[in-house]
Specification:
AKR, Aryl-alcohol dehydrogenase-like predicted oxidoreductase, 10 helices, alpha/beta, NADP_OxRdtase_dom
């Protein structure tokens, strides 16, 4: 599998990683899927302390035991479980980050994290304090590099300006082209990589995804999604699937270092990874695909 440098770091990530949130809560099944991914050339595993209340980190930790050197391990921080309350609170404070990383390390069964990411962020956060926490952890060798997971252009701009992030995790697909408006050009100019999540748009762009379109997707309605799927299928032709084509679209922008599609079965995993064997899109092919969707813009109502 082709490997790309993540921003200015020395991390070389396979262009197709694994979003581990979808591997489930059964440890045996989750470890099996992660091992199959590693055996097929995947080296970027992405998780978060939020997923399944930490259980996902534990499963990833079990899977990489004895294989740590094969893995670029990414996790996230910032969402805090509040005792006695439903849901999660948001806490990007230095104190919390320095505390939360210890729990992630314990669950992951490792003494360092390759890429530690702020799991969200608002313009009203104490950003300098947040950055101080990441910089301290980097100096101490607890993390190798840090980044942010965000779709908010105004927040991303501030971290680009103030910090040493090497990556931005951003939802990016043929149906979600918000990053093309200003995020991708900015990051390309600054040498910061994108890790693209949601390349098949929650399954809407997958070959068997027609059953997922009834509720729409972002600002697309059901009829529009049917039309996009019809045109995508025709474009893909006989040599590649719709899902593989969608993954290649997300990878076709030069600042995207990796995509992290999820997989809950071996079949899904194999299909996603097989996109690495499909020829990259040409500039003309990318432009043709853009004509079947639209350049939607960032709107806070679309998370």
């Amino acid at each position: 599998m082709k490997k790309n440098r993540l921003g200015s770091s020395d991390l070389l990530v396979g262009e197709i990683g694994l979003g581990c949130m979808s591997v489930g809560t059964d440890e045996q099944q989750g470890v099996y899927l992660i091992h199959e991914a590693l055996d097929r050339g995947v080296n970027l595993l992405d998780t978060a302390d939020l997923y399944q209340h930490g259980r996902n980190e534990e499963i990833v930790g079990a899977a990489i035991r004895g294989r740590r050197q094969e893995v670029i391990l990414a996790t996230k921080v910032g969402n805090r479980r509040l005792p006695g309350q439903e849901g999660w609170g948001w806490d990007p404070s230095k104190k919390y980050i320095l505390s939360a990383v210890k729990e992630s390390l314990r669950r992951l069964g490792t003494d360092y994290i390759d890429l530690y990411q702020l799991h969200g962020g608002t313009i009203d956060d104490p950003m300098d304090e947040t950055i101080e926490a990441f910089e301290q952890l980097q100096r101490e060798g607890v993390i190798r590099y840090y980044g942010i997971s965000s779709i908010r252009p105004h927040v991303i701009r501030e971290y680009v300006k103030r910090s040493n992030i090497v990556s931005v995790m951003n939802q990016y697909s043929l149906l979600d082209r918000r990053a093309e408006e200003e995020v991708l050009p900015l990051l390309q100019e600054r040498g910061i990589s994108v890790i693209a999540r949601g390349p098949v748009a929650s399954g809407v762009l997958a070959d068997q995804g027609e059953g997922k379109i009834a509720k729409g997707y972002l600002d697309y309605n059901e009829a529009e999604l049917l039309d996009v799927r019809k045109q995508l299928k025709a474009f893909a032709g006989a040599d590649r699937s719709m899902g593989q084509t969608a993954i290649r679209y997300s990878l076709s922008h030069p600042t995207v270092a990796a995509v992290i599609p999820g997989a809950s079965s071996l079949g899904q995993l194999e299909h996603n990874i097989s996109a690495a064997d499909i020829a990259p899109l040409t500039r003309q092919e990318r432009q043709t695909l853009q004509q079947i969707s639209r350049a939607n813009r960032y709107d806070a109502q679309y998370r």
